[in-house]
Write a structure and sequence with these properties.
28% helix, alpha+beta, two-stranded antiparallel sheet, 89 residues
């Protein structure tokens, strides 16, 4: 996913995912605060809790995570997963 830093350390998501999210923000009248996370690990269930991005979702630290998640029934118990969005170039 393409992104760039904007003034005041803001983040702008570019490309197809950014355009799609921007349309959702506009049509549903909400704004996002993007947080870049160094941990690219989607997460796994270890010792009774989730790690990575799924851990942050399950603990309420974040509300949306955009990553290349492999959809499993275990992960679906923590987050609402959507099908991959592909765009032919």
């Amino acid at each position: 996913m393409d992104w760039e830093l904007t003034k005041n350390n803001g983040v702008k998501i570019k490309g197809f995912a950014g355009s799609t999210w921007g349309l959702l923000e506009y049509s549903m009248n909400f704004t996002s605060r993007y947080v870049l996370h160094d941990d690219k690990d989607p997460g796994e269930f270890v010792n009774g809790s989730w790690t990575g991005l799924l851990g942050r979702l399950s603990e309420g630290q974040i509300h949306v995570a955009i990553n290349m998640f492999l959809g499993t029934s275990e992960r679906a118990s923590v987050a609402d997963l959507i099908h991959s969005i592909w765009r032919d170039m």
